[in-house]
Amino acid sequence: MVRLHPILPALLLALAPSLAFADDTPGCGKAVPSADIGSTRKLSIISSNANRTFYVHLPRDYESDDDYPVIIGFHGAPGIGPHFEADTRFSAPRWGDDKIMVYPDALGGIWATGMPGAVTTPVDQDLKFMSDLLDYLRNNYCVDNEKIYATGISNGGGFLNRIACDPVVGANFAAFAPDAGAYTGFEAGGNATCNPYKTPIPIISFHGTNDTTVPYNGRNGTIATPPIEYWLQGWIERNKCDNMTEVLFNGSAHHFTWTCDGVQGAMQHYRVEGMGHVWPSTEPNFSQVSSGGKPTVIEANDLILRFFDRWDVEDRGTSPSSGGVTTTRVGGPSATETGGNMGTTTGANPGATTTTAGGGNAAGRVEGGMWSLGVAALAAVLIGAGLV
């Protein structure tokens, strides 16, 4: 009979708490000011010798001993974090009451894109900011490391795609959700590369066919963007997707879903007929009002949050739940400049490999019209969203 050394039971008992909470971040158990709970606070850190600002919204029931999912939301250009917070209403109780919402600011209002010239900060500098920001969040709040996600619009949507393509920074994130993404550098002949940390990378994306800022069919010029179907094809190939289906919502929102590397629904895209350069919402929001748009037939917040709930950083996700659909057909739109169809794989892809084009960085196009209503309109949306 094997006898345990007398000290072992006591040693195991002493180690039990640390073993049970091995995944806790240093911020777990750390007190936060009561005024910060249920509100949005502006903070800053030094990253790459620059002062970087961001906004953190804690849920109303935040407890320092409970770990929370984190969603980082990236504004469009030019912009600041509160623009995205106001437009999406992600901090409102019905969306953000069980998670930590974070809204970082880009230097000069434009996220790094790798565009020609010196329009933005270097891509590596903004990626380093993301690493430093995540370190700050983990050290000061109780973060669920398996449930960190990114979403964003336009220039911000493009930058989060740059994160998804980075094998180091991207490995902190479980899933991504760009809207109206500007993916300059990933057009045909572009100079961008993509080397994701795993296959598949879960992505749900949105784009309107009436978007004149980042056109669905792409744009040429100094700041080019790829056709959205071309960008999708890049992720279809590196995620090893096939078995595409299309579901039509209310006659105008085409929902494309792929099975990627055997994982059902790991990649999804909403093509919304007639939608402009806005955040998709069934209720009026800031981007819709400021651009003369109107509410859409889909609510991106609900779709994104349900999609995020399926994914952790280290696992391959759960089966998707069925939604309220109307019409289903197998197949999909023909690919633009791809030589193939979005619903099929175009060749063997033995893992997450580095590829040229088809990935994502932001175009950084000046979206002045989006914010043309100024501070008064922003305040009105903030009040309507219950944020002030």
TrEMBL record:
It is an enzyme of class 3 (hydrolase). InterPro entries: AB_hydrolase_fold, FaeB/C/D. It comes from Orbilia blumenaviensis. This is feruloyl esterase. It is found in: Secreted. The keyword Secreted applies. The keyword Signal applies. Its EC number is 3.1.1.73. Keywords: Carbohydrate metabolism, Hydrolase, Polysaccharide degradation, Secreted, Signal, Xylan degradation. It catalyses: feruloyl-polysaccharide + H2O = ferulate + polysaccharide. Residues 1-22 form the signal peptide.
